[in-house]
Amino acid sequence: MNPAKILMGAFLVNNIILMRFIGLCPFFGVSTSLETSFGMSAAVLFVMMLAAWVSWLLYHLLLVPTGLVFLRTAVFILVIAGLVQFVEMVLKKYMRGLYSALGIYLPLITTNCAILGVTFLNIDYRFNLLQSTLFAVGTALGFALAIILFAAIRERLEDSPISPSFKGYPIAFVGASLVSLAFLGFTSLFGISL
Amino acid sequence: MSAPSRWKYFADGIIKENPVLILMIGLCPTLATSVSARDALGMAAAVTFVLVGSNVVVSLIRKVVPGSVRIPIFIIIISTFVTIIDYVLQAYQPALYRVLGVFVPLIVVNCIILGRAEAFAYGHGVFDSLLDALGKSAGYALVMLVMGSIREIFAAGTWFGVAVTPAWFRSAPVLFMIFPPGAFFLIGILKGIVNRLTAGKV
Hints:
The complex is a heterodimer. Chain A is mainly alpha-helical. Chain A has nine helices and no strands. Chain B is mostly helical. Chain B has one domain (8-195). Chain B has helices at 3-12, 27-33, 37-60, 70-92, 94-100, 111-119, 126-156, 167-171, 180-198; strands at residues 158-159, 162-163. A two-stranded antiparallel sheet of chain B has the order 1-2. In chain B, strand 1 and strand 2 form a beta hairpin. Classes of the chains: A mainly alpha, B mainly alpha.
C-alpha cells in the first residue's frame, strides 16, 4: 500500500481515538490541560514507534517461524510492559531532560490500549516493517492532534456554565462527539478507507 | 458469610458499581462495538467469559502468588482467556469476530478485568469472586444492551435485526448514531442521566 496513504489514513481518516475508539482512557484522563496533553503525546509517539518495531520483529522472526502465533496477545503485552520499564530506566540514567518531560507519562502508557492496538493492527493488516513504522507514526500524530484539540475545548469548558449533572465526563463526551463529527468529514479523503 | 451480603457482591456490579456508567472504565470497547444490539451482546459475552475465568483462577491461586509479581501473573492469566475466546470466536462466530476485530485481543488491557483481579479476586474466595465477576459482567452487558439497542434503533430502525419502526423512519434513519460521534454523544447523555438520578446517593 502507498506509504503516504498509510500515514494520512492513520493520522486523520481512521484517527485512533475519534474514529476507532482505542486509547480513550488517556484521552479523557490527561486532556485536562494543554501542557499534559503535549507531554502525553510525545511519550506516546516515542513508545508507539519502539513497540511497533519490537512487536513486528518478535512476531515475524520468533513467533511465526516457531508456530507460536497463538501466544501473540500474551507476548505483546508483556513485552510492551517490559519495554516501557526499560525505556524509563534508560531515560532516567542517560537523558534527564527527556525523562523529566516524559517520565510521569511513561508508567501510564503500559496500560494504554492505543500502543497494544497498533501492534495488533500492524499484524492484522500484514504490514511490513516500514509500513508498520509509518502506521505507528501516523497513529501517534493522530493521537496528539485529537488530544490537543480536545484539551483546548476542555479548558474552555472549565469556565462555562454547565448543568451540575453534566459537569465533568458527560459534557466532555458531548464535546468529543463534536470533535469526532468534524473528523467524520475526513472520511474517504484521498480515497483512503483502511 | 450470610447469604444477603454475598448477594451484594453480585448486585453491586449491576447498578451501584456499574463498570461503565459509574466507574467509567472499559470505555473503548463499549463505544466501539455497540453498533447494534447483537454485536454489543457479543462483546459483553466475550468480556464475561474472560472476567469470570480470570476472577476464578486468580482467586484459586491467590495464596501461592507472591504480592510482588502478582500483576504480571494476572496479565498472563487474562491473556490466556483472551486467546481462548479470540480463537473460539474466529472459528465459530466469524461474522461477529469481523465486527469486533481488534477489540477481542484488546480485552487483555480492559481495566474492568485487571481491576477486579486486583481489587477483589486476589483477596476473596472462589465463590465470592465468581459472584463478583458475574455481577460486573451483568452490569457491563446491561450498558452494552442499552447502547446497542438505542444505536441500532436510531441508525437502522431495527432491534436485533427485526424492524421495530415505521417504514418511513427506516428509509431515512438517524445515521449519526451508528458513527463514532453518535457513540460519544450517547454515552455523554447516558452518563448525564445517571449523574442526575444518583445525585447525592453514590
